[in-house]
Amino acid sequence: MYSTQYQSPVGVITLESSGQHLTGLWIEGQKYFAQTVDGKVESKQNLPIFEEVKKWLDSYFEGQNPDVSILPLAPKGGEFRQAVWKILCSIPYGQYITYGEIAKKIAILMNKPSMSSQAIGGAVGHNPISIIIPCHRVVGANGSLTGYAGGIDKKIKLLEIEGVDMTGLFVPTKGTAL
After folding, report:
1. Catalytic: 89?
2. Contact criterion met (CB below 8 Å) for 88 and 134
3. CA-based angle 144:152:53, to the nearest 5?
4. Are 30 and 177 a contacting pair, CB within 8 Å?
């Protein structure tokens, strides 16, 4: 496994790769930082995959909508988490979805009558490839900007970069009913 860092408008980002696939992307200080890393990681700056991802990130932070499908992603996680992350990848740039909407999609996919929004939140929160697998595009049912492992301030910044209409979205304060 290999890693490198990228300086971004939301802070230092650590990239992890098997050498062929991107396996991790974490914002400095992110909850669950590098939780999926197995064994020793060697620092390496010039892997082709890192160059591709850095170009993608440059484009993203310039306010463009780079194509995610061109990146070879290999997030580590079980079947449930993989299904949730696949749905995250389908959220259009500049838009958002609620945890409840994802829960309904997963319930249908898994042929279940319902799915817990909290279970979805757990899978979203453990996304090992932040930004590229856009977990920042998930909000609470009432428009609350909650549950971003990188920090709410970074979630807001990412949504602003994408030009999301923030009308109706808010940061919950202590005691706010979600």
Report:
1. no
2. yes
3. 120
4. no
Paired tokens of 36: 């999926």
Residues 86 and 64 in one domain: no
**Is residue 101 within 8 Å of 138, Cβ to Cβ?**
no
Percent residues over pLDDT 90 in the chain:
78
Taking only the tens place, the pLDDT of each residue in 89-115 is: 999 999 999 999 999 999 999 999 999
Six-digit token string for 49: 């995959």
CB-CB contact of 8 with 111 (8 Å): no
User: What is the pLDDT at residue 178?
Assistant: 46
60, 13 contact by CB (below 8 A): no
Range of the structural domain that residue 32 is part of: 2-70
State the catalytic residue, choosing from 102, 131, 135, 158: 135
CATH code where residue 31 lies: 3.30.160.70
Residues 40 and 102 in one domain: no
* H helix or E strand, kind and range, residue 61: helix 48-61
Q: What is the pLDDT of residues 38-77, one digit of tens each?
A: 556 677 778 999 999 999 999 999 999 999 999 999 999 9
